[in-house]
Structures are given as structure tokens and as C-alpha cells.
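Appendix C reproduces, verbatim, an entry submitted by the partner laboratory led by Prof. M.T., so that reviewers can inspect both the input and the predicted structure.
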Amino acid sequence: MQVILLNIVFLLIITSLQSMRMDYASFKGMNKEHTLTEIYYSFSDVGLKYLRDAEAATADYSIQFEITDNISTKDTFFWAKTYTTSYDEDGLRYRNIILGVEKLYLKPASYDTKISLVQGVDGKETVVDSFEKRINIRDFSQFESRENVMASDYQVSFDILDIKSSVVTWNHEFEKNGYYFIPLPTKEFIGNIASANYYYEVYIPDETNYKKLKFEEQLLDNTKHLISRQEIESESSGTIARIVTIPLRDLNTGVYFIKTIVKDEKGDILLNKNPVRIYLSNPDKPATQTVPFYESLSFEKSIFRTMDEEEVETEFDKINYIITDFERSQYKQLTGVEAKQRALFAMYSVRDNDTTTTFNEFLDEYMSRAEFADIHFSYGSFKEGWRTERGRVLMTYGIPEQRQQFFRVGEKNPAEIWFYPNHQGGVEFFFVDNVGIGNFVLVHSTAMNELRNPRWIEMYDPALDDTDLRRYQNSSRNYQGN
């Protein structure tokens, strides 16, 4: 465990949001079935109980990480750490931000995670702080069969230091490719000379003939307009590690985006990474831009206020899965872009799970569903996975508690069965890819107001195993009998 002492402005900003924070990034692992997942966390030590002796004050604690996948398998990891701090001459303890990195190999899926700071006090374990986050783990298993390049997630870092020249020796958990990567789970950079630091990897299939690649690193404002760009050429190889630093000096406090475009020698785009939101707190330059929902619940400072007409209609299509008929009819009567922006803002605001916080948890979770669908349910040239049948169900009902996948066997079609135990007393959705292009269509469901087709097995010939086949054949017969 390594401790970094940050200025008091950074400390106050972190603790004012939530002192325990977590982020993650997915990288291509050593085997096809598992993805290398790095978990980054940070917290302030102000909540810890310290014991003081003649030499120092120490606090023993553990980091507990709980993870639940979409088939209801729960694992708990315990990362036992010991942290030692000192007092100044007046007996006052410095406030420190403690950072950590843990590396796991996970199967591609959506997971609900919870990270907790736990300390034993008077013989009893006490949760000092915790943070929950849904993570979507990328699937790199088909990398070798693809012609196009792929890329890892961004690892946003407080600082990136060359190990050979670093004046501080960090623990090995921060090491990678000859550098120390100091995690920044908040994605918030502080100061009037701050720089946005991040790392990612680009994976080049062996069968490609690219000799050189061009990397364009972009910094965008909160309206997605270009502020600055950096361009660099690199030799093409199996894995390209990219370390990027973008100066943020002279920029106002606010929300920004980092984005990468990879091109071949001809200038054709091979990879267009989705932009990632970062935050800048510049004490010399207050916010002047319109910032997303994270900063304020006011419409004038919401992400919807910056959307153009096409973006507004796309966002309406997303939320159209879950709104009421009244909301839908009211929206259809609107003509101006701003009126539609306000309608979208209102739809998400009324569904906010917790209005005591500074951001809309429902919007964050709903957009995570869309991101998961785009990653896992797109097929061919169709990239908007949330528009597919599986995407619609996911956007409407959330991530299923159970998701069974059956791959093609002979002439039998690939299929999926989703189970939601907490909806309507337990409901199932059945999808089949009967064309063989990766587009799974809904063929039957036990949920109210969804497609019912008790003959789905004989009509679509799914590749179920014998046990599931008998079970669903019997349930279909019983349904028909009723």
C-alpha cells in the first residue's frame, strides 16, 4: 500500500463527494476466457482510528471487495493492508489520501461491486466507508479473429512516473511497463497547472499489414467540441502501450472529455474510442461552462442542455423503453429542441433514486445499461446494441440475475435464457439467434405484456442442453394445457 499526500483542496473535494471512490479498467488478458481487470480505489484516512506509541501512530485496516456477476455468483476478496502515519510537532495528524490497485481476472460480464474500508475497533469490525459501482468487463476473446484493432479502457492516473527517475519508490502494484501509474478513481484533476494523464493499450491482429499507426489524442469540452489535439506515429505491433499527458493549464473548472482516434498510414480510421469524462478543478479559474448532471441538478447545467436535435432524439429512443404513455404522448407534441431537452431532463429527474446526492444515480445506471448493450449485443455493422431485442429487455428490466448462454450445436440455434427473480414473482426471457449473425430475437417470455409463444422450442430449435430442453418442453405443454 502506498500513500500519497495531496493538497488540502483535493482532500476537501474528494471528501465532499464521497471519501471512498473506485474505478476500473479492462485489458486483454493472457487467456481468451478471462479479462484482466484492474480495480483502483482511494479514500481519506480521516475516518480511521490510530494507535499511538513512542515512535509513530498506526492504523490497521482491510479493504474488502465484493463482486456479484449476472448469474448470482458472489465472491468476496479481502485485501489486508497496514498503514502507518506520523504526527507533526503539535501532535496533529496529517490528512492523507490512500490509494490502491488490485488486479483480477474476470469473465466478460456485468458485475455489481462494493468496496469497503473495514477496521477492527474494540474487538469489533466496523465499516468505516464504502462505495458501490456496476462494472462492465470487456470481451477480448474474439480479438484474434477480427481484422480491426481493439483497445483497452482508459486508466486515468493522478500521475505517471518513470520508475528509473522517480524520487518516490512506489509499491509494485503501481508498476506497469517501466512506469508507476498512480490511480485517480475520481477522474478529477486539481490545480492551475494540472495535466490529464491516462494509459491504454491498442491490440493489433497478427494478420493485418499495418506498418505505422497514427494516434490522435483529443481533449473536448463538455459539449464535445474539440479544444486541443496531439498526434503521434507509432510502429504497428501486437500490443501498443500508450501513455498520454494533456495539459489542462489555463482551462476553467469544469467537465471535459478525453478521446482517441487511431488511423492507418492512409488516414483511414481504424479505431474511434468512446470519449471518457474527466473533471478539472482550477482554483484560479471558476466554472463558466455548462456541466453535466454530476455537477448540478439544474436543467441549465445538465447534459441535456448541450444536446443537438439528433442527440435528443437518440436519447428519447433510449428512455422510450421505460416511460409512461402520458410522457410519450406529451413528448410527441413538442416541436422545439429546448422543449425536448427539458422533457428528457424531467423524465430522468423523476426517476432519480436519491435526490439527496449531487448526481442522478438512475441516469448513471441507465446509461451503464446502454453501454453494456453496445459492447455485448452489437453485431456486424449494427453498433447500437441497446436497440436490439436483448438491448430492449436489458434497458427495461436491468441486468438479469441469471443469464444462460447456449452455443450452436449442429443445426440447433444459439440461444439465451434470462431470469429475473425479483420481477413479478420471477420471470424469464428466451432469445434465439435463428439467422446466425449474432442478433438474438425474443421468442418467448413469462413476463406480463411481453411476447408469449409456448411453441418457441419447436419453432426455433434452440441448442439447449437435455435438462433445460425437457424442463421448458414440459412448461410449454402445461401452458398450452391451461
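The chain is about 20% helix and 40% strand. Additional entries are available on request from the coordinating office.
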